[in-house]
Amino acid sequence: MPQPIQQVIEAIQRGEKQQAIELIKQALSVDPYDIEMLLALATLVEEPTRKRQVLNRVLSREPVNKTAREMLLEMDRAELSAYRLKPNPVSPTPTQNVSSKPEFVSPSVSQPAAQVASTDSVLSHPTQPSSLNPEKPLVFGPSTVALVVLILLASVSCCGGLLLASQNMGRGLPSLALALLFGLSALSLWSKVEVTGAGIRSSSLLGSTQVKWDEIASIKSNSMKRRLELISSNGRSVGISTQVKGYPKVIEILRQKRPDLFDESRLPASQANRPAEEYGPSPSTAIDNLPAFTETKTFRKSFLKQYGLLFALIPMCLLFAWLGLSSTAETRTAFLVSAGFCALLMLIPFFQVSGVKVEPNKLTVQTFFEEKELSARQIKEIKMQSIRGRYGRVTNIVNIIPQEGKNYPLGGFSEGEEIIYGFLMKWWNPYQNR
Predict the structure, then answer these.
(1) DSSP string spanning 381-408?
(2) For 209-240, what is each residue's pLDDT tens digit?
(3) Are 108 and 1 in contact (CB under 8 A)?
(4) Does residue 271 lie within any of the structural domains?
(5) Closest Cα partner for 384 from 205, 229, 221?
(6) Could you read off the pLDDT of 93-114 as tens digits, one per residue?
(7) Same domain assignment for residues 302 and 246
(8) How far apart are CA 317 and CA 323, in angstroms?
(9) Helix axes 417-431, 247-257, angle to 10 degrees
(10) Together in a domain, 218 and 160
(11) Is 287 helix (H, G, I), strand (E, B) or coil?
(12) pTM for the whole structure
């Protein structure tokens, strides 16, 4: 074992946290991606968000690092259990021994099996006691209100269609077709997602599929089928419906458990030994000075996604305008008002976000009329949101909320809102506390 990490472990065991931080600072100033030192820092950091940032930096260099995954797994269990009702607190027994010294788990030091559980054992034995009960997973299902509305609409349309068909078959066909449309919408809306400490399961009327967290090799957004595909290492695909209630929570859990899935590029090896900035005096501030985001990425919406609506609105506007000018005075006003309404709708694409450029400590949001530059400190929050529209259909967007000014919703990008959200969070996390 290298001498510096041995000194850090001994300082932690003696309870000399400040001395351990100084040793970590010295080591990271030489190699900012020293895995053992970053794991030691993660042990000392108590604030969950900052602790995740350190562990995610370890995984950005070593995606299969078991120690980092075990620490994230324990944090995930605690956070997943927070979504449920917490049980009554149990008082500790008199024989319970609580240590005041922080424990450090090093990948190069053998630890007792009772102290360090491997990721493989956790995934292969999901029934072991933990704060996340595998028998009661987090369940994300369809909106009950949307299903009821669709079923009622289908029933009313079907009854009306049968009544009209009994008198005249031709008159009843449109209502029966509408009932079929509402019925198919209700069937496609029904789906369920279950999240446990071991993995994720997706269920529909046609069956169910599941995958363990460490088996996911890549993710792909499928906007046509309205689902996120989790592709396992053996090529099997698990489809997560974007229509489930609480879908943004599912994405946030996935991002926290597997941040490497949202990394479209790796840090170049030439930057691995770049000197880091001076670390602060405490573990809560040391994370702020980790090497920051160094990539440049541009997300741009396709022309059809951005302006496709105009191909329908322009002919309608011209038609209504022509009918208004050529019709009698009684109907002229109605046609001209319709033409004006279409003209207003034609302005919407020009105010929507058409592109996002991500640079070190700078985010540029582009619309037809402006390019707004925002630093990480000028952004209050980045989050995914679900907007439920007509007939229960859900549209998921990424909302960039600045400290001042209007919000910038992102939607309709070919990469998928999930990928954009993960990438933006990767950019924002290193900077937001600076």
Answers:
(1) EEEEEEEE-GGG-EEEEEEEEESSS--E
(2) 889 888 898 898 887 778 888 998 888 888 88
(3) yes
(4) no
(5) 221
(6) 444 444 444 444 444 433 333 3
(7) no
(8) 10
(9) 60
(10) yes
(11) helix
(12) 0.59
